[in-house]
Design brief:
This protein is an all-alpha fold and 113 residues long. The protein has a domain at 2-74. The chain is built from two helices and no strands. The protein is rod-shaped, with a radius of gyration of 43 Å. The mean pLDDT is 89.
């Protein structure tokens, strides 16, 4: 019986050592797997973040162009309405573009440099 107790204690110590080794191995594998996943997620996230920044910049530029075009369209609509409904404005525009003048008028044109 004494021999069996020695074998049982040896087996118990060996099993404890194996369990400790497996536990440490599992922690190491889990840590490495976590690190690999974190690096993978980082390499997926960074390009997408850069792409998002570029798209946001393009969106801001498009909004500015839209705002400018909207203002220009409003100006042209007002001018069209004035040309249709205001004979004085129509006369001023016609005389300016066609360089017409009435008899006895003197026209002074100032050229901008």
């Amino acid at each position: 019986m004494a021999g069996k107790q020695k074998n049982t204690r040896k087996n118990e110590k060996r099993l404890q050592a194996n369990a400790a080794f497996l536990s440490a191995s599992n922690r190491l594998i889990f840590s490495l797997l976590s690190a690999v996943l974190a690096v993978g997620a980082f390499f997926i996230y960074v390009p997408e973040k850069v792409k998002l920044g570029k798209l946001n910049h393009e969106l801001q530029l498009a909004k500015l162009r839209e705002e400018k075009a909207s203002g220009q369209m409003e100006y042209l609509e007002i001018k069209l309405d004035a040309l249709k409904n205001d004979p004085t404005f129509l006369e001023i525009q016609s005389r300016d573009r066609l360089q017409l003048y009435r008899p006895g008028e003197t026209i002074f044109r100032i050229e901008r440099p």
